[in-house]
Design goal:
Pathway: Metabolic intermediate biosynthesis; chorismate biosynthesis; chorismate from D-erythrose 4-phosphate and phosphoenolpyruvate: step 5/7. Monomer. Its EC number is 2.7.1.71. This protein is an alpha/beta fold. The chain has a single domain, classed as 3-Layer(aba) Sandwich (Rossmann fold), CATH 3.40.50. It is built from eight helices and five strands, in the order βαβαααβαβααβα. A five-stranded parallel beta sheet has the order 2-3-1-4-5. The chain is globular and about 40 Å long. The structure holds shikimate-3-phosphate. The site of shikimate-3-phosphate has 9 residues, from loops.
Length: 172
């Protein structure tokens, strides 16, 4: 069993993924953490020193590396992972993968990102108004990819425990 969580930045993929993995007693992997460990640099350093194209290449490589592992896991992707390098096709080519889009409203994302922008190079320099505009447009563009997931959960107004219960039901 390989559960892959996707969705926009700050939608809660890692918190939910970690909780769900604990419940299922399988390992949890955060793709950004995995990339940072492998590259021995933070995501911000990779963007700054090597650029986004290099980051997307490595992201694609490490996603495939993880999906080729035999054991079960819950994997949370980066917000952009589904939108580059045919990564949604990579997911669907693995029969044992169930992908879930964790859908969040623009308002929730902007509120959260205002407090946690600094480690996210795509939005780190945006002030609140510019951030709202950016997220609205970006989320619209990215939804084309996110909507290709096997399942979707709308997160707004739900507690982490409720979402974990929803995941159990969907994936049972
Ligand atoms: C990105 C999202 C980030 C990280 C990188 C690029 C994106 O992951 O992969 O900063 O393109 O949306 P999170 O979704 O975990 O913030």
């Amino acid at each position: 069993m390989k559960i892959v969580l996707l969705g926009y930045m700050a939608s809660g993929k890692s918190t939910i993924g970690r909780g769900f993995a604990e419940k299922k007693q399988i390992s949890f992997i955060d793709l950004d953490d995995y990339i940072e460990k492998k590259e021995e640099k933070t995501i911000s350093e990779i963007f700054e020193e090597r650029g986004e194209i290099y980051f997307r290449k490595q992201e694609h490589k490490y996603l495939k590396e993880l999906l080729d592992k035999k054991e079960s896991f819950v994997l949370s992707l980066g917000g952009g992972t589904p939108c580059y390098a045919g990564n949604m096709d990579v997911l669907s080519s693995h029969e044992e993968v169930s992908s879930v889009y964790l859908k969040t409203s623009i308002k929730t994302i902007v509120d959260r990102l205002m407090n946690e922008k600094s480690k996210r190079p795509l939005v780190a320099r945006l002030k609140e108004e510019a951030l709202s505009e950016f997220v609205a447009k970006h989320l619209f563009e990215r939804s084309y990819y996110y909507n290709q997931a096997n399942y979707m959960i709308v997160l707004d107004n739900k507690s982490v425990d409720d979402i974990i219960d929803d995941l159990q039901v969907i994936l049972s």
